[in-house]
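Narrative summary of target 7.
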Amino acid sequence: MRDAAGTTPRHDSRSGVGAAWWSLALLPLSFVLAFAAGEGVASLAGAGDSTSPAWWVMALALVLATAIFACPLLLTARYSNRAATRNGRGARAPLIVGIVVTGLFVVANLASGLMVLVVG
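Modeled conformation, tokenized:
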């Protein structure tokens, strides 16, 4: 794409890095949706009883919740990669932060699920 002078405009890599950071702002929304989906799976499987849910119900809820929670990372990866191809400084930092936050989400849910299975 050329501008009015007939030259190709130079894209600023900082805008891609900024967009990658802003895409992480979707994580709180995805957290709420992941929580609702995980609880919905457990509720549909009849885990609302006084007994602890089956391990497969908990595993299904964890996989679904993790997939929903990690959805904003698709945007983060796109913008980070775009900025990285333009040699943007710190282009991968937002993606690394998003992956670490998602990993902590999985670890916290695994620990919670193990406590439910062990303690009951």
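The helical segments are 13-23, 27-44, 55-69, 72-85, 93-119.
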